[in-house]
Design brief:
- Keywords: Iron, Iron-sulfur, Metal-binding, S-adenosyl-L-methionine.
- GO terms for molecular function: iron-sulfur cluster binding; metal ion binding; transferase activity.
- InterPro entries: Aldolase_TIM, HydE/PylB-like, rSAM, rSAM_sf.
- Strand 6, helix 7 and strand 7 form a beta-alpha-beta unit.
- It is globular and about 55 Å long.
- About 40% of the residues lie in helices and about 15% in strands.
- The protein contains 11 helices and 12 strands.
- Strands 1, 4, 5, 6, 7, 11 and 12 form a 7-stranded parallel β-sheet that branches. The protein has a 3-stranded parallel β-sheet with strand order 8-9-10. A two-stranded antiparallel ribbon has the order 2-3.
- It has a single domain, classed as Alpha-Beta Barrel (TIM Barrel), CATH 3.20.20.70.
- The protein binds iron/sulfur cluster.
- Iron/sulfur cluster (SF4) binds next to loops.
């Protein structure tokens, strides 16, 4: 095995923070090389140690759909992609039922996701109702547009434990969102006591190693409960579809590299969409999805691309993981 690569991987495993150049060298490895498999092996070991051997499944409910003016090229809701032509908000009863179904199936955290178009006040009200009805103490997490400190405090008050938020690849270039706004939101969330979940996303063949490394570092510096990597899912007929999509083996390699680039104090390492290879290579968090979904072209992803909790559990077990019962350990209030 290449001595330098082994040294980089062992350096991270032994607790030191990797430099950009070192992370880049990990990304550059051939995905079928001895070094890449050693990377996956150590990432898996590090992930297992960071979560006491228990992987998690988080369940997300998309509460609305319709054209969104932020126009992120990879998203089915982008107005310019012309997939969804009318605004639609699911009924509160339906959203609640989907959240409770995910909880009952064993999800360790429940997320409510909205497009940037949804009114903040309506979202807060949904959150309050869902939080009141959850039965097992699993944390409620918001996945919404950028927000101010006052809005972060309102989310906390409404019963949200945390937020999922990411500085995406190509921010400001293939989206109308400035990276600076993402960073301000991280800060607002932290100040209001909301725990952050984040990851490097959405990754496609069009992204350079430099940009992937840059976003790994942005994520780790935000000190989230988990990082990880998600691939860009091609929405047919959109501008990015010409690039195609990364394969699961390449994604597993990136997930392993994110684990090594991220300090142990950050226990979670997610991957999306769920797959065995990623879980073997150190992903200890998978996602079940219901309702709307920016990677899907229908309102009910549970009947399309979205996996349910049972399927995520099957994947984790196939990859040799035990699955946590009860509330997530990645969203513990400090
Ligand atoms: S990713 Fe979010 S902000 Fe961007 S277009 Fe889709 S819904 Fe809007």
């Amino acid at each position: 095995m290449n001595k330098r690569v082994k040294e980089i991987i062992d350096k991270s495993y032994n607790g030191a923070l990797l430099e950009s150049q070192e992370i880049r060298e990990l990304l550059e490895l051939d995905i079928c090389s001895e070094e890449s498999f050693y990377l996956a092996y150590k990432a898996r070991q590090m992930s297992e140690e960071a979560c006491a051997g228990k992987a998690e499944i988080h369940g997300q409910v998309g509460v609305n759909s319709g054209p969104c003016s932020c126009n992120c090229a990879f998203c089915s809701f982008a107005a310019g992609n012309k997939i969804f032509n009318a605004q639609r908000i699911e009924s509160l009863e339906f959203i609640l039922q989907q959240a409770l179904d995910l909880e009952e199936a064993g999800a360790n955290a429940i997320y409510l996701m909205a497009t940037a178009h949804l009114n903040f006040q309506s979202f807060l009200e949904m959150g309050q109702v869902v939080q009141r009805e959850l039965r097992t103490g699993v944390p409620l997490i918001a996945n919404i547009a950028d927000f101010s400190y006052d809005e972060a405090a309102a989310l906390r008050k409404a019963g949200f434990t945390g937020v999922y938020h990411a500085a995406r690849l190509g921010e400001g270039k293939v989206t109308r969102i400035d990276l600076k706004d993402r960073l301000q939101t991280f800060e607002a969330a932290g100040k209001a006591g909301l725990i952050l979940g984040s990851c490097v996303e959405p990754i496609g063949p069009e992204h350079s190693h430099e940009e992937i490394v840059e976003k790994m570092i942005v994520a780790r510096e935000a000190k989230p409960g988990f990082s990880g990597a998600m691939r860009r899912v091609t929405i047919p007929g959109t501008s990015l579809s010409a690039h195609g999509m990364l394969g699961e083996t390449r994604m597993a390699h990136i997930v392993a590299a994110v684990r090594m680039a991220t300090p142990r104090e950050i226990p979670g390492n997610c991957t999306h969409e769920p797959n065995v290879m990623g879980a073997v290579a150190g992903a200890n968090l998978l996602w079940a999805e219901a309702g709307s979904n920016p990677r899907d072209v229908v309102d009910n992803t549970e009947k399309s691309r979205g996996y349910d909790v049972g399927k995520c559990r099957e994947i984790l077990v196939d990859a040799g993981w035990q699955v946590l019962n009860g509330p997530s350990k990645f969203f513990i209030t400090k």
